[in-house]
Amino acid sequence: MTVTLKLLTNLFLSSRIIRVRKQLIFHMNDINDLTEIKAINGLEIRPITPENVESVRDFRDEMYVQKFRMLLKNSQIGVYAWLNSKVVGHAWAKVCTHGKCRLNGYFDLSANETAIHTCNVKSELRGKNIYPAMLSALCRHLLCEVSVSRVLIDTAEDNAASLRGIAKVGFWAPKGLGVYIQVFGHLVHSSVNNHHLNGQD
Ligand SMILES: CC(C)(COP(=O)(O)OP(=O)(O)OC[C@H]1O[C@@H](n2cnc3c(N)ncnc32)[C@H](O)[C@@H]1OP(=O)(O)O)[C@@H](O)C(=O)NCCC(=O)NCCS
After folding, report:
1. Nearest-angstrom CA–CA distance, 132 and 168
2. How far apart are CA 61 and CA 28, in angstroms?
3. Ligand 1 pocket test target in 131, 136, 138 with most atoms within 8 Å of CB
4. pTM of the entire structure?
5. From the CB of residue 169, how many other CB atoms can be counted at a distance below 10 Å?
6. Which domains, and CATH codes, for the chain?
7. C-alpha of residue 126 to centroid of ligand 1, in Å
8. pLDDT along the chain (201 residues), means of 10
9. Which helix (H) or strand (E) holds 72?
């Protein structure tokens, strides 16, 4: 009986009908916390624009062209990492301009906060500081030019590569653990435990 229940639960979880996310959440509000990143030689980080958005095809599926066009239309801020005239990485940020905003169906932001999301680096080029270079460029732009009150980023608690990249940029310690349950894409449970991690606030 217990085995059947476990099997059914696993089937349910893997079918994506129900999605449970456990995300570590990091904040940065002071540009002095930002660490300079030395990435692979020749790497350039540039804004994503309507003119270059299609270059995501250099390493990702066609569906990302449509997705990224939509993000631009919704005034989101993105960067591409370029190496030898090819896009090898992307990262995006949503700025919450007023009221409350929800990102990706679960992550809540207050006015003047921003969250970095949808980051990826071409698999053959991972481990060369491309992700931290994109995060660093985005954080600088968001804190110094957009003047947001703080930059947030979250990642799955078992995503070791992402956690390492986030730490390199100066998001030193996680400020909370978010647990989110989505059913058919709708958020049915959300809890953020700020005291979970060594009493960090
Ligand atoms: C997470 C991700 C963006 C990191 O990009 P990156 O440019 O490789 O980041 P870094 O260079 O800082 O590498 C981070 C860590 O990944 C690990 N790593 C090293 N080489 C690697 C390789 N070839 N492949 C995978 N991971 C590697 C190392 O632990 C490295 O830390 P180190 O530099 O201290 O050794 C990338 O792995 C990725 O695109 N993953 C899939 C999508 C994803 O998880 N996005 C983030 C969601 S928030």
Report:
1. 7
2. 32
3. 131
4. 0.90
5. 27
6. 28-173 (3.40.630.30)
7. 5
8. 73 73 94 94 98 98 97 98 98 96 92 97 98 98 97 96 97 88 87 64 41
9. helix 63-73
